[in-house]
Input
Amino acid sequence: MRNKYHRGPPRKYWTINFRITAPNLRVIDHTGKQMGVISKEEALQIAQNNEMDLVLIAEKADPPVAKIVDFKKFLYQEEKKQKEAQKGIKRSVVKDIKVSLFIGPADFDRLINKTKDFLHSGNQVRINLTLKGREMGKKDMAFDLMKKYILLLGDINVSKEPRLEGRVIRAVVAKKK
Output
């Protein structure tokens, strides 16, 4: 089970040396040259002679593919590849905007501009309209305010339509691609 505080993708576990169960393997040596299909025992002997490990790369292939490598160096290179792949991914951040039912026109315009800035930066925006006390009786007025807010944002993609969750009406919007 993954730790809830763990960041990044789940770790991959490699089958190495004597834990490989397939009787025959397609083997790639430490220089990258294909050695062909050979028995597991023969591949392990070659790996031990070179003071390296036999690592199962593709176990679903027929026959499974194994590589003769220095396992610690192999893990380091795999970790580097994974970090390099993560660099290209831009994480979408969800920004929160809080609106109240009886908001003044100047504050309303300021929040619209702030939301447009967030959307222009490529972030998603969660709009929260909290109803306090007797405002719960004015839900239709609150939904109208949310619809007006979304309309004033212009050409956007509404990921989650406004809906009441407890005392909060929430909507999530994002920039159209």
